[in-house]
């Protein structure tokens, strides 16, 4: 089947099912070989700018022609039979409205599958939905069973931890303005042995008043901006570390502040959310989860800053 994906998580789902799309978005980068697949999207945003500048660019673009363009000519030439897009966020990736408009200009009449996940179960159901649409339903069930087994392995090691003994966790998915990660994040933190008191399961990510975060006084902080790798996170972390009261937070005083690759993991609703859960478990409950952490995914903020300076 000729499949086009318009966001990285959809590309990862398709790849996990043993399929290869004929077209992807400009942001799709995993598995690595998808970088050689034709891209059908372009962004009007300078992704290398600071978090504050990106936020301003997004607001300006959203008020005008939108954040993304579709290369309709390339899309037409690919003759897609299935297009996997999303309806969750028109800032993070091309959404269904933009795709529907682009499809009016091509000869093919593909099926459009829109993902809109807000919980881990939603993500797993999307794997099954894509599998059914692509004609590999049995394979999708096998993939989901494997992902669920890995999540259960984490849950089994934390289920006995009383609420009072679970550290307060805050995960930032943007630094200026300061935004607390929502959607599936509360589930991942809970399964990993922490307490996530700033957002409920399924709640959208949104800006928060700094005073609210200071009052919560997180014991563990994970900085994982949407779309940022570790290096770009390091360049923007002063948005948080320079704020009044930062040095008095429990997580900072105890040296439990981490940077995590939010682009590939925490903020990408595909199969690697399971990897995110496993990494968070090592961060939140290191005594229960032995083994070396993967420094390409997450590192203590102090170590990251030092590594870049070197």
From TrEMBL:
Checking InterPro entries in the record gives: ABC_transptr_periplasmic_BD (IPR002491), Vitamin_B12-ABC_binding (IPR051030)
**Which ranges carry the Fe/B12 periplasmic-binding domain?**
2-288
Annotated protein name in UniProt: Cobalamin-binding protein
Q: Which organism is it from?
A: Natronosalvus hydrolyticus
Q: Which lineage is the organism of this entry classified under, starting from the top rank? A: Archaea, Methanobacteriati, Methanobacteriota, Stenosarchaea group, Halobacteria
């Amino acid at each position: 089947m000729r499949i086009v994906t318009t966001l990285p998580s959809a590309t990862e789902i398709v790849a996990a099912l043993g399929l290869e799309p004929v077209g992807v978005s400009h942001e799709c980068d995993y598995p690595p070989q998808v970088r050689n697949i034709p891209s059908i999207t372009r962004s009007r945003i300078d992704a290398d700018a600071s978090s504050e500048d990106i936020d301003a660019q997004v607001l300006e673009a959203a008020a005008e022609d939108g954040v993304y363009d579709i290369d309709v000519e390339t899309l037409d030439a690919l003759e897609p039979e299935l297009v996997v897009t999303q309806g969750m966020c028109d800032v993070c990736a091309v959404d269904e409205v933009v795709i529907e408009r682009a499809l009016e200009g091509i000869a093919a009449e593909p099926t459009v599958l829109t993902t809109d996940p807000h919980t881990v179960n939603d993500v797993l159901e999307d794997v099954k939905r894509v599998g059914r649409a692509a004609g590999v339903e049995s394979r999708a069930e096998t993939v989901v069973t494997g992902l669920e087994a890995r999540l259960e392995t984490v849950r089994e090691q934390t289920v006995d931890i009383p609420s009072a003994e679970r550290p307060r966790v805050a995960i930032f998915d943007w630094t200026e303005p300061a935004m607390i990660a929502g959607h599936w994040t509360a589930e991942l933190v809970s399964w990993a042995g922490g307490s996530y008191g700033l957002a409920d399961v399924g709640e959208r990510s949104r800006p928060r008043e700094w005073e609210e975060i200071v009052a919560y006084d997180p014991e563990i902080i994970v900085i994982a901006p949407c779309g940022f790798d570790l290096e770009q996170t390091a360049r923007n972390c002063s948005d948080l570390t320079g704020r009044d009261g930062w040095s008095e937070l429990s997580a900072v005083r105890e040296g439990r502040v981490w940077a995590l690759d939010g682009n590939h993991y925490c903020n990408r609703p595909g199969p690697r959310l399971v990897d995110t859960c496993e990494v968070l478990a090592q961060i939140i409950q290191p005594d229960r989860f032995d083994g070396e952490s993967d420094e390409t995914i997450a590192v203590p903020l102090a170590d990251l800053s030092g590594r870049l300076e070197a």
